[in-house]
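Hey team,

Filing this mostly as a record. A colleague (T.K.) asked me to run one chain through the structure pipeline before their review meeting, and I want the input and output archived in the tracker in case anyone asks later how it was produced. No errors, nothing strange. Just documentation.

Input sequence:
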Amino acid sequence: MTETLRLYPPAWMMTRAVRQDTELGGVRLKGGSTIVLSPYLLHRRADLYPEPDRFDPDRWLGGQPDRAAYIPFGAGARKCIGDQFALTEAILALTAIVARWELTPVGDQPFEPKVETSLSSRGLRLRISERRTSGTGDAGLHAATPRSAPAQPSTPAHPSTPPGAGGCPVKHEE
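Output structure:
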């Protein structure tokens, strides 16, 4: 989760007000000015993260990220107050999903974030296959079943819409 949030921080851009005349990175800033900083760009600095554009969850095996160089939910007095809830919810949701489903990208298009107030996906297409226990008695071993179908775009569907139609996220084909 840490590596995903490094590459795609939900708070991808934030502003701060300069309280008094100061210098930042060799640039003079007047008091009252507004500056923009981007965790998205900070998290891609090669001097902070080797191969910064590569997804590498193992980069965090050595310990926790530097609080000054890793700020997916912002920092300081204006840091997101729901950051721990969001992390917990994401981990629980991901655990529940991958325990039951195998997710495979459809096609070879790279992921492109959709830039709005927060980052989201731009039409990420996945094939979803239900997992079944292997029958060995080990509940941790799973095998994907042949029942798979591409996920539809995540647009809301009307409650009376059949699965797979009108943006419903999952349709199983027998």
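Quick notes for T.K.: The CA atoms of residues 127 and 150 lie 4 Å apart. The chain has two domains: 1-81, 82-174.
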